[in-house]
Amino acid sequence: MNRFMRLLRHLVSSPRRLRRRFTPEVLHDVQRAITTLEREHAGEIRFVVEHALHPAQLWSGLTARLRALEVFGLLRVWDTEANNGILVYVLYADRAVEILADRGIAQRVSQEEWEGLCREVETEFAGGQFRAGSLRAIEGAATLLRRHFPTVVSKVSNELPDQPVLL
């Protein structure tokens, strides 16, 4: 996609449009899914949706992946005792999904597995299924975490907030 079209798409994206797709009900369902599914594995999941990037960020070539890395640090997803944080990052204007795992999980779950899940969620979003796509991201992450990072008795309880974040 060319830089001009991407810039235009981000300029016309608005927080209001984002809130119509990610309603309080959808966000509540996401939070409930995170809370419920975190009991089944040793990971900590954060879910973040950003409506668009600033034109200067776009002009400099900031990708959804690089922005997800920034958000990962800003929200301190890395700051868990077992290095078991996961960030599900959605850049709404691009309909892009990135999942980042802290080093404790990245040692066990391959980047290809996360990328496959991201593409599935992007397909849901492309079809206008924002609730289903969001829940698919959480459920898919939980499935991978149950398989590769099962719950342990010594897990510190809920180190990261379960509440989704809209930027």
Please give a structural write-up:
- The protein has helices at 3-12, 15-21, 24-37, 55-59, 64-74, 103-106, 111-126, 130-148; strands at residues 44-50, 85-91, 96-101, 165-166.
- The chain is an alpha/beta fold and 167 residues long.
- The chain has one domain (3-151, 160-166): Diaminopimelate Epimerase, Chain A, domain 1.
- It has a four-stranded mixed sheet with strand order 3-2-1-4, with helices on both faces.
- A hairpin with a 4-residue loop joins strand 2 (85-91) and strand 3 (96-101).
- Helix 3 (24-37) packs parallel to helix 8 and helix 7 runs antiparallel to helix 8.
- The two termini are 23 Å apart.
- The relative contact order is 0.21.
- The model has no long low-confidence stretch (mean pLDDT 93).
What brief labels describe this structure?
167 residues, alpha/beta, Diaminopimelate Epimerase, Chain A, domain 1, four-stranded mixed sheet, 4 strands, 13% strand, globular
Q: How is this fold's topology laid out?
A:
Elements: H1 3-12, H2 15-21, H3 24-37, E1 44-50, H4 55-59, H5 64-74, E2 85-91, E3 96-101, H6 103-106, H7 111-126, H8 130-148, E4 165-166
Parallel strand pairs: 1-2, 1-4
Antiparallel strand pairs: 2-3
Helix pairs in contact: 3-8, 7-8
